[in-house]
Amino acid sequence: MVNENEKTEINTQKITLTEEEVGRLDRQIRVWGFDAQQRMRNATILVVQLKGTATEVIKNIVLAGIGKLVIMDDGDVMEEDLGSGFFFRDEDVGKKRVDAAKDRIESLNPLVTVETIATFSGLEGSDFDATIQAVDLVCVTDWNREGLIRLNDGCRRLGKPFYAGGTYGVLGYIFCDLLKHDYVAPNDRSVPKEAQKNIKLSATYPSLSEALRHRWTALTKKQTKEVNPAVVFAILALWEYQKVHGQLPTGSTDVAELQSIANAMISAADVQKQVLETIPSELTVSLSETARSEFSPVCAIVGGMLAQDILKTLGARDPPIANFFTFDGNTGAGTVCRMSMP
């Protein structure tokens, strides 16, 4: 684990907002405050895998004025990327995703430095530490469960905040592990803004592997309903299916197996039986048939939420997600579930 002195040493060269930047970001500074904007400006963010969710994240954090963006992806632009990846054009098909997107990302905000890495080798072996130590926050999108756990554990070891997110057809999720996160927030939002006082707060986050061992026993029937567990377990079951088969479901022939996996997980986690005993069949049918697809509206919502939370974390203003967010495009609803988090 990196100690506080080492963290400080990594970020010794601070960027000061120029008069031009203050003018450009005036509206944001009024919302976040100057100090929060300054922290964003000094941040280096690594975004892994440049698909639909990531393009939304990148758009928002670049426009918000972070200091440096590192994008990592080893894939080529394919025709299916054109629907949800708005950094890509028809003529980009066959090019490396990071190369095709770089100029268009830079055009959003010329003050942000954009670096591209067209391989995932920096996340393996001896190169991992150097890759992660060079950034302030890691965001991995559209990845499998085992890979997310490994990357999250590595980020924890190096003291780096970690976000994961992605979409599966009409469903989407965000997970964050912010280690021990300090932030400020109003002491009482029920009073007029001018009467509010900011207080310092802190939250301790578990790793993804710890979060996945969450037991639902302690939740009341009402609390269980509020977090929409059907969508949570649909995504968790999808991850397990992906581990077993090495791929996402391909269609209706996978419905029964996905349903069985989800139901076994619900039982093992001690979910209130009065709330959820089995995943609704229409949800597993939808997921089996659309999990491989990216829908722009879903990517926009999940990616926008993910970007907003990253900016909250960087600015240390207001509480970030705690700690697993799911979105259901069938209903248009999003919920947050505290998984193994105090």
TrEMBL record:
Pathway the protein takes part in: Protein modification; protein sumoylation
Biological process according to GO: protein sumoylation
Any single GO CC term annotated in Swiss-Prot or TrEMBL for this entry: cytoplasm
Keywords recorded for this protein, A-Z: Nucleus, Ubl conjugation pathway
Compartment(s) of residence: Nucleus
SUPFAM superfamilies: Activating enzymes of the ubiquitin-like proteins
Keyword Coiled coil among record annotations: no
Superkingdom of the organism of origin: Eukaryota
Primary localisation category: nucleus
Gene Ontology MF terms in the entry: SUMO activating enzyme activity
A UniProt-annotated Pfam family: ThiF
Entries under InterPro entries matching the protein: ThiF/MoeB/HesA (IPR045886), ThiF_NAD_FAD-bd (IPR000594), Ubiquitin-activating_enz (IPR035985), UBQ/SUMO-activ_enz_E1-like (IPR000011)
THIF-type NAD/FAD binding fold domain residues: 26-339
Annotated family: Belongs to the ubiquitin-activating E1 family.
PANTHER family assigned to the protein according to its UniProt record, in alphabetical order: SUMO-ACTIVATING ENZYME SUBUNIT 1 (PTHR10953:SF162), UBIQUITIN-ACTIVATING ENZYME E1 (PTHR10953)
The name this protein goes by in its record: Ubiquitin-like 1-activating enzyme E1A
Taxonomic classification: Eukaryota, Fungi, Dikarya, Basidiomycota, Agaricomycotina
